[in-house]
Each structure stands twice: as structure tokens, then as C-alpha cells.
Amino acid sequence: MKTDVLVIGAGAAGMAAAIAAAKRNLKVVIAERDEITGGILNQCIHNGFGLHYFREELTGPEYAERFREQLSRYAGAIDVLNDCHVLRLNRDRTALLVSPKNVFELEAKVVVYAAGARERPFGSLMIPGDRPSGIFTAGVAQRLMNIDNRKVGRKALIVGSGDIGMIMARRLTLEGIEVVGVVERLPYPGGLLRNVIQCLKDFNIPLYLSSTVVEVKGSERLEEVVVASVDEQFRPIPGTEKSFKVDTLVLSVGLIPQVEMLNGLVTLDKRTRGIACSNTGQSSNEWIFAAGNCTAVFDLVDYVTKEGERAGEYASRYVNGERFSLGVPIVPGENVMLTFPNYYNDVDDLTLYLRCKKPMEKALLKVGGFEKTFEDLIPSEMIVVKIPKQKLSNLDRIEVKLEEV
Amino acid sequence: MRVAVIGAGVVGSLIARELCKYDVEVLLIEKNLDVGWGVTKANSAILHAGYDDPVGSVRARFCSVGNAMYTELSRELDFEIKRTGSYVLAFNDEETAVLHKLLVQGEKNGVPNLSIHDRETILSREPRINPEVKMGLWAPTAGITEPWMVAIAAVENALENGLKLFLNEEVVDFEKQGNRIVGVITNKQVHRVDVVINAAGLFADEVAKLAGAEYVPLHPRKGQYILLDKKLGNSVRSVIFPTPTEKSKGILVLPTIDGGLLLGPTAEDLPSDRKNDLTTTNEGIQSVKDFVLKLVPEIDFSLVVKTFAGLRPESPQKDFFIGKSEIVPNFVNAMAMRSPGLTAAPAIAKYIAEEVLQQQMRINLTTKKGFKPERKGIRKYAELSLEEWQRAVKENPSAGRMICFCNEVTEAEIVEAIRRGARTLDGVKFRTRAMFGRCQGDFCMSKILKILERELKTDASQIVLKSPNSWVVDGKVRE
After folding, report:
1. What is the total count of domains within chain B?
2. Is B304–A126 a contact, with Cβ atoms under 8 angstroms apart?
3. What are the boundaries of the signal sequence (chain A) (predicted)?
4. What is the C-alpha separation between A51 and A182, in angstroms, rounded?
5. B295 and B349 fall within a common domain
6. In this complex, is the C-beta atom of B247 within 8 Å of any C-beta atom belonging to chain A?
7. What does the pLDDT look like over A68-99, one tens digit per residue?
8. Which residue of A has its CA nearest to B302?
9. Rounded to a whole number, what is the distance in Å from the CA of A154 to chain B's nearest CA?
10. pLDDT given at position A56
């Protein structure tokens, strides 16, 4: 089988990329390993999606549905393969696809990789103690509750005040599961302020900042979680231990871009841990484009959609014969934790995403000849800024700095 | 003739399978919900070459023989072994002297092809090793396996050959006539028996006490481990030991069968009342981290997949305690299986059937006609050729539905694991490697729960992780 564009993953980025390519009259195969398109959006039944992209507030499934409809409108151009896992991607631009219908090789002119991110599992945290049941990542808890219609427990503690953690605290509460608190290692919440208010404050769920889980107890089902305060180096402070008798622990401790399939095919970025890309979505391998949380973990699905569209567009232009250089590297400087994209090619203005290193009241962003002041910065809220190409001309390296003012 | 084997770890399972070669009725009684879930489940998974064990010890007698038996056993029972070879590393002259002693000891124990390599040879084979290494004892017969798979495979094969397996059944007492045991009393029923073989792992001393037979006191020695992602699988190719001390073989670095990297274990002696203590500790994990960096200086701990602890039974003699009881004439011990218990297990099983039962106890065992020595493992579709896989999917579409993406496990494999006896999430995990990968089940656990629910015709709330009270999900969100 042959196609112009193979899109791997039909979440927000993949669907947008497939539609963008189909609009340019290319033949697209989109492979989704789950039973339906939409990715993680399908289990995010809370609202707050689409405010930037659609200028209205949607739930995850609603947001996914809008793109699913568009996919079906391009049915002639886009072949949607659900329940289809891309097992391997080869150097010769072939892929091995596995589904209950068939196992087959597909030859593509270009690939848009949009596999999203996975959650950091409990095991990787090296928390001492027993290994009972009842410990879930937020995504698993979300899937069990929202798709499989199952309660994950009776009394729960949440670790990590990222958006998913806080949203799950609310969700569990709404379904009659007692949430005794949310534990956060940082001295400030890990997610958006609106979620702190709507998910925790409104439900009287305590947030324990500068705290961490130091032990889990229970040889069968979870029985107890011990939490301690941490010092500035995140080391638990002896004597500050507090015990919570819970049967459920929900972890929201970070997402890791899924890049394994591209091992050896593309370069990764050390900071984002994702696929290093140019602003065209192109990776270090000219025929592999990437978008969404497999490149960097984004705050909002709206951004992911935008990046998917961009990767779809440039991938299409690549199929049509255009060639792009990666461009000049974009590097995080003073007070900047990470930036995306990782390279800039002056075919277009730059949409730059960045995270600061520490909370700052006011800071001046400096990128090439571009400057802009931001207020109330925290690392968990991504800064997005559009920088005109004129401000970035004649640079062989773009440093991104945040000067505290 | 009815023989009851108590404990379905790797030792008990292999004994049970060995006995199934004869015309006897074999019962295997296990208190856990599955086989291989005690000592067997969490250890270093090494096939030791056999140079460690003191000359003349019971350990030495069975280790290198057992090691050699694994080649044929893994072929018959279709589980994986890898003869990776092992290095014991010496970083100074004192340690180098120990290597020479180990070499001599190993040769006396019958270990083949031992040699001492210099720094250059070691680094050419294992470039990630600390370049300060001086010498290394190379044992090419050492290898790795998945211990629980040995038990699972042995039991599956034994079941094909008539074994009666009793899971979730704990021995609570024995019924005796005079000194002889006539019944094994469990929390569920009484089994009439002629012979009892005690392979109850950490609890074998307690079982022997119940029977009124000889025993050695057992205490658990805890080993904490760190498992790293498959990405690191190639960073070492063989089993890397430090120079051993009196107490243990030390903290090691070794590849796992499925390409991960395993670090550990600690050796922490616990009192005998803590035989269920599988907790990890900060100190334990930290000591593993600190120690392994001396062997392999560049280990990326951001690739940790999980930490866990296992317990191995240790006795004052530091040796296996195997043989027929002098007090209870129809009771046989196979206990105190500290390292290298896994390696020695096939040799112990054979010894118990052929020498203890037949020769010493004068039990006439006649060979069973039609014994089928071979068992096939669950087909791993991702390892098939494209054509074979295509054919398989045409016959059975679920062979093309990928459930565990990290370890490439299809729905067909999970269904097959359930058909072969998996009743729990861990049962599926240990048979298929689903949920064993870098995401630790984040993507597949909920799907596997549903498959279990469907195949077992039960409700998800009834499905447990590993033990009767390890429930996974509660009731429904909406009726």
C-alpha cells in the first residue's frame, strides 16, 4: 500500500495534520491505535477545550468530534485506520501497520508523527513502600471513570497539581469518592490557575504545597500514604510526615513525549525530551514531521491543533517538492526552562512556546530583536508569542531570554 | 500413589513436573493465586555458573548441573534463557586474588570454561564498565531467564501430563497415622496423600514444623531492585558482579530477558516474622544506585521503570536443605533455597524423583507412558514474520489488535494467557509481559481489565491485581 502522507496518531495533532494535508489534495492515511479517533480528548469529559481555536468552550469529546467530522468530510482523501498500531517505521519510508484486519506495509512519501505523550508511571518515582493495587496515573483513572464507567476507589489522595491531577480531584469528588487532598512538590500549583479555583477551591479540597509522598503502605489494596514537606531541593524534611488513610492514589506527575518509535530516526531535544523540530514541524530527518505532545508537552489542545495544522501543511509542501532546511537553533537562555520549536526557518513568522524556570512577577522576553513584557509567570503556564520574521533575520542562533524586571 | 508438592515456586513446579513423568498422582498446592509468586517472582533471574558455592556444599552439587539442564529444559518448555555469560569484576589486587580463588573453586565444582580476563578484554566486550577495572572472572555458562516463566511453563506442562493444581489454598496442618502423613489439610479441604514434598519457599520451615519433620529455621533476606527501561538493554550484555563478600554476591547490573536493565539486589536480613515484607526503602534503593555506579558509571536513572523488592530464604547453614525426613518417613524437604536456587532447581527436581523417592525411600516409580515433555509458550505475534502474522490475523483478528504497545502484546496473547490460567492482572502481566513495559500499564491496564472481565464472564470489580484483597476498581460510576 502507498500513500502521500502517513499520519501516526489521531489525537488533536494528528487529526489536524491529516486535514491540513487533505486540503492540499494529498492522499493521507491516518493510523490510530485506539478504537476511535480523538486520542486522550475522548476521556477528557470536562470542559475548557477550544477557547483559543474555536472561541467557545467545549468538552474533550466535543472538541474531538469537530475534527472527526472534518476527517469524514475528506473521506476520499483521508483513510482513517482505527485499531491500527504502527509497529515500526523504517528508514526507507515504509511502516509496518498492525490491525485486526491486516498486518501490512505502507509506503509513504512523508510521515507526520503525532503520537502524543505518556504519563510518568508510579514505578519511575522510586517511592518506597509496598506495591499494592489502587495506585493509578491520572490518565488511567480518567479512562476507567470516563470511558469504562468504573470508580477507581473510595477514598483518594492525588499527587501532582498539574491540570489533570486537579481535574481528577474534582471528578472523583463529583462521583462520591472522597478526595482528602492534592499533594504538590513545588511551592506553587502545577496547573492553570483556573483549575486551582474550579477544581480544588470550589470543592474544598486541600492543596499541600512543597510536599511529597514518602511511603505507600498496604500489601494488597492501598491502605495508607505518608506525605512529608520538602525543602528547597525537594528533599523530605524528617518529622513533617503526615499520614492519609486512603485506598486510592492518583498520580499526575508529568507527561513524557512518546518518541520510542522514532529511536535512531530523529534527534530529540534534551529539555522537552520530545522530537526536536523546526517551526515547520520538520524533524532532523527531512521526511519525518512531528506535532503535538510528542514534540513538547503543551498546556492547551488548541496549541496542539495549531501545531498539527502547521506540520500537515509543511509536510504537504514537502511532498509537493519544496525543501526546507531545519534553520537556526532556538536555545533557552536566562530563566527559560524550555522552548518549542527547537529550530527556526524563516519561511514564516515564529510562533514560539516557552516555559519559564521559576515564578516571576514581571519579566521581559527577549528573542533576537523582539521584546515583550509578561506578568505573573509560572513554569506551569506556557508562554505563547508570535514573533515576526523580520525580528529574527540574520541570526545564526536564537536565544530566548526572560529578564526579570 | 499420591504425591503432594507444597509450593508452586520454581522448585515445587519443577518437582511436580518431574514427578508427572511417572505413574503417580501429583498434587501441587499453592497458597497464592498463581504459580511462581513467592520467592520465584522477584530475584535476579540469573542462571549462575556455579563458581560461588563452597566446594562440597549442597549448593555446589546442584548449581552447575542445574545450569546445564536449562538448555534442554528451556527448549522442552519453551521459555527463554540467554547465555549472556557473567563477569565478576576486581578493582584491586585483593579482589583479583578472590577471582583466582573463585576460579579454582568453580573448576572443582565442575563449572566449564572459566577464565580470567584482563582489563582490555573486559572493556572490549563491555565498554560501559568502569574503566578502573583490573581483572574479571568470565563465566560463559552464566545466563538469565524469567524465573516465573520457568514455574508457569513447568506447571502448564505438568497439567498436560495429569497434574492436579490447587491455587489459593494454604496448608494449615497435616493428618498423621503414627509418624506418617496421610492427609494434607488446607484451608479448603483435606488431600489424602502417600508422600509430601515440601517446597514452600520462605515458609518451608513452618510447613516442616507442622509435619513434625526436620527443618532449618528460615529468615527472609530482602533484595531491593531497580528496573530500567529497555532503551538501556544494550548498555551491558552480560551479568556484571562485583567481587563477592562473605554475605552475598553483591549488587549487580544485568540485562533482563526482554531487554531492560536490572540493578540490585540489596541483602538485608529480616527477622523470621517478616516473610511478607516486600517494601522498598529509600536507603535500599539509594544503596543500589550508589553501588552500581561503581560497576557501570553511566546509568541514566531517569529511565527507571520501577523499583521492587524480593525475599529469598536464608538459613544459618547458608545452604540448601534437601532430603527425606528421618522422623516422618514420607516427608521430603526441598527448602532453604537461597541463591542459586533458581539455577539448581531442575537438578534438585531430578534428584528428588530419582534418588530421594526411588532409591532412598524405595518408592517404585514407573515411567508414565505418553508423557509429553514439550510445552509451547504463548505465541508472540510481534516476533513472527510478516507472512505468518498476516495468516494468523486472518484466522484470528485479535492477533492484530495491539494491547500493550511498550512490549507489543496483542489481544490474542492476553486471551491465551487467561485460557491458560491467568485470573488476575499480574497473572496476565507475568505470562505476556503486557503492563511490564515503560508505561507500566498506563495504556493497556484498563483494556486488559475488560478482556479479563469478558473472558472470565465476571465483573471488573471482582478482578484483582495479585491477591484476594487487591481489588482494582470499585462499582460503576453510572448504572
Report:
1. 3
2. yes
3. none
4. 26
5. no
6. no
7. 999 999 999 999 999 999 999 999 999 999 99
8. A124
9. 8
10. 96
B393 and A104 within 8 Å at the Cβ level: the answer is no
Which residue in B48, B117, B191, B219 is the catalytic one? B48
One domain, residues B287 and B395: no
CA pair distance B67, B110, nearest whole angstrom: 11
- pLDDT of residue B472 exceeding 70, the answer is yes
- Nearest residue to B257 (alpha-carbon basis) of B275, B282, B239: B239
d(CA B240, CA B85): 9
Any domain includes B478: no
Residues in chain B with CB shorter than 8 Å from the CB of A120 are none
pLDDT score of A183: 98
Size of interface A-B (CB pairs under 8 A): 144
Q: Are residues A8 and A112 located together in one domain of the fold?
A: yes
- Rounded Cα–Cα distance for residues A350 and B13 (Å): 64
Q: Could A103 and B446 be called an inter-chain contact, meaning their C-beta atoms sit closer than 8 Å?
A: no
Q: What is the CATH number of the domain that holds B388?
A: 1.10.10.1100
Across B75-95, average pLDDT: 97
Within 13 Å, how many C-alpha atoms sit on residue B439's CB side? 26
Q: How high is the mean pLDDT of chain B?
A: 96
Q: Are strands A207-208 and A178-183 parallel, antiparallel or unpaired?
A: parallel
Q: Give the β-pairing of A360-367 and A370-377.
A: antiparallel
pLDDT tens for residues B321-370?
999 999 999 999 999 999 999 999 999 999 999 999 999 999 999 999 99
Do B147 and B207 fall into the same domain? yes
How many structural domains comprise chain A?
3
B442 touches chain A (CB under 8 A): yes
Query: Can you give the pLDDT at residue B479?
Result: 85
- Min Cα distance B440 → chain A (Å) is 6
Helix axis angle, A301-319 to A12-23, nearest 10°: 40
Residues B8 and B60 in one domain: yes
CB contacts of B279 in chain A (<8 Å) are 128-130, 217
Note which residues in 347-406 of chain B have CB less than 8 A from chain A: 382, 386, 389-390, 393, 397-402, 405-406
CB B200 within 8 A of CB B171: yes
B185 interfacial to chain A (CB closer than 8 Å)? no
pLDDT at B65: 98
Q: What's the pLDDT score for residue A380? A: 87
Tens digit of pLDDT for each residue in B262-287?
999 999 999 999 999 999 999 999 99
B406 occurs within a structural domain? yes
pLDDT of residue B249: 84
Same domain, B183 and B131: no
Task: Decide: B348 and B154 in contact? Cβ < 8 Å.
Answer: no
> Hey, are the CB atoms on A104 and B390 less than 8 Å from each other?
yes
Whose CA is closest to B206, among B411, B472, B6, B475?
A: B6
CA distance A240 to A228: 5
Minimum-distance CB partner of A221 among B284, B397, B469: B469
Given an 8 Å threshold on Cβ–Cβ distance, is A140 in contact with B441?
Answer: yes
For chain B, helix (H) and strand (E) counts, in that order, are 12, 23
Q: What are phi and psi of A219, to 5 degrees?
A: -80, -20
All residues of chain B having their beta carbon less than 8 Å from the beta carbon of residue A129 are: 279-280
Would B66 be classed as within a structural domain? yes
How far away is chain B from the Cα of A219, in angstroms, using its nearest Cα? 8
**Domain finish residue from A299, A326, A353:** A326
* Residue B233: predicted pLDDT: 62
**Model confidence pLDDT, tens digit, residues A193-223:** 889 999 999 999 999 999 999 999 999 999 9
Residue type, B40: T
Q: Report the residue of B472, B478, B479 to disrupt the A interface, i.e. the one with the largest count of A CBs within 10 Å.
A: B472
Q: What percent of chain B has pLDDT over 70?
A: 100
**Is position B117 annotated as part of the catalytic site?**
no
Question: Whose grid coordinates read 563465566?
Answer: B139
Say if residue B6 is in the same domain as residue B76. yes
